[in-house]
Write a structure and sequence with these properties.
Blueprint (H helix, E strand, L loop, with lengths): L2 H19 L12 H23 L10 H10 L2 H13 L6 H26 L8 H10 L7 H21 L3 H15 L7 H19 L1 H5 L3 H24 L12 H6 L1 H24 L3 H12 L1 H11 L7 H22 L5 H8 L22
Helix pairs in contact: 2-3, 2-4, 2-13, 2-14, 2-15, 2-16, 4-9, 4-13, 5-6, 5-7, 5-17, 7-8, 7-9, 8-9, 11-13, 15-16
Length: 380
């Protein structure tokens, strides 16, 4: 068979599979920017990779010179701040509907708790009793034990409501209110219900919101100059991370880090926020450096199915084998492919399960987070 005909046959087969599974297509939703979806896709792949490493290696017992431990530290420095930055970016100029956000974020968070409990209790056979109501209560009060990103993003979205209201009255009030909210939330002597995560990640959520607000000014910067600046920050980030890592100043298991840590350990506080911000800039530089639109489109496609991957990857990547980096790679594949198969072959086929497990309302085709973008930070 000639190469041209074989490619046509492959496209035909892919088209039939895509139509049968109702897979999303990059660029089909008006207003979505490929670059921002690519950043989100990169973020979800890093999430799966980070969990794949912890699935293959006992990181609590690893040494500094363990390569898997090094890569895990590197990823955890910035991948979730990147997610929150993108989430804040896409919410700029949008009306925050509490009910919609609750369905989109809280419903899947709650729905996957009994699934996770059942897997741990009857399949993984934890060596200690796992009682459902105790698990449910503990996960709700301390979301870090579950899909913590969802309730944390929900709270960040609610905190944006007064910001939008004040910004309509005074243009300068948005920045001031974001700062006041960040400080106020950090001073609340309460860490349950995901608030401890909000205390750290709201800063990046606000950063994304402000980046969207000032995107016209950012786009005025010449592309060549901005590329040089991005590459310079990226190189500095890699050097700083390596130096701080071997100097013992990177502690991935101590975050979320709150404003109280600023007064107790100011150096650790500054390092955590600075390195996360530089890591985000490095991700933007990476997406912008992709020379082909096809490469960026691949990342953007994963950005359209982040919810489908996120909610079940932690369970499914455990269906793996091997050891070391072989197990990491296998876990990365199973943690990415199996959640998509579960979603598009089964759970998204019915509106009830689509709404329950993915927060997708009937006739809703957009993906997590459910927003539309106009401009793209990865394009300038």
């Amino acid at each position: 068979m000639q190469p041209g005909k074989s490619m046509t046959a492959v496209r035909s087969v892919y088209g039939k599979v895509r139509d049968y599974m109702d897979l999303p297509r990059v660029g089909d939703i008006p207003g979505r920017a490929i670059g921002i979806d690519a950043l989100r896709g990169l973020a979800i792949l890093l999430v799966v990779l980070g969990h794949s490493i912890s699935n293959a290696e006992n990181l609590l017992a690893a040494t500094t010179y363990n390569l898997e431990y090094y890569v895990s530290n590197f990823i955890y420095t910035f991948h979730m701040p990147l997610f929150f930055m993108v989430s804040g970016y896409v919410l700029f100029g949008k009306r925050i509907r509490i009910g919609d956000r609750a369905i989109r974020l809280l419903l899947p968070f709650l729905a996957w708790i009994p699934v996770s409990w059942a897997v741990n209790r009857y399949i993984r056979h934890f060596p200690w009793p796992v009682r459902f109501w105790a698990t449910f209560k503990d996960t709700v009060l301390h979301p870090g034990a579950g899909l913590w990103f969802l309730p944390t993003l929900f709270i960040c979205s609610l905190l944006l409501i007064p910001v939008v209201f004040l910004a309509k009255k005074w243009s300068w009030a948005g920045e001031i209110s974001l700062l006041v909210i960040f400080v106020a939330v950090n001073l609340i002597p309460f860490d349950d219900l995901g608030l401890v995560q909000v205390k750290y990640f709201f800063a990046f959520f606000a950063l994304g919101y402000l980046a969207a607000k000032y995107r016209p000014r950012l786009r005025e910067i010449e592309r060549e100059r901005s590329d040089i600046a991005l590459m310079g920050v990226s190189a500095l980030f890699l050097l700083l991370f390596t130096g701080l890592y071997y100097w013992g100043r990177i502690h991935p298991f101590t975050f979320p880090i709150t404003i109280y840590d600023l007064f107790k350990t100011p150096g650790a506080y500054v390092i955590r926020y600075l390195m996360a911000a530089m890591g985000i800039i490095t991700c933007i530089a990476f997406i912008r450096s992709l020379k082909t639109s096809r490469a960026r489109t691949v990342f953007a496609w994963f950005g359209l199915v982040t919810m489908e991957i996120y909610v079940s990857h932690g369970i499914l990547l455990q269906l793996t084998f091997g050891s070391g980096w072989v197990k990491v790679l296998v876990s990365l594949v199973t943690g990415t492919v199996l959640p998509l198969a579960l979603a598009f072959l089964l759970l998204r086929k019915w509106w009830f399960t689509a709404a329950l497990f993915y927060g997708i309302r009937p006739r809703e085709e957009e993906t997590f987070p459910k927003e539309k973008e106009e401009q793209d930070p990865a394009d300038g």
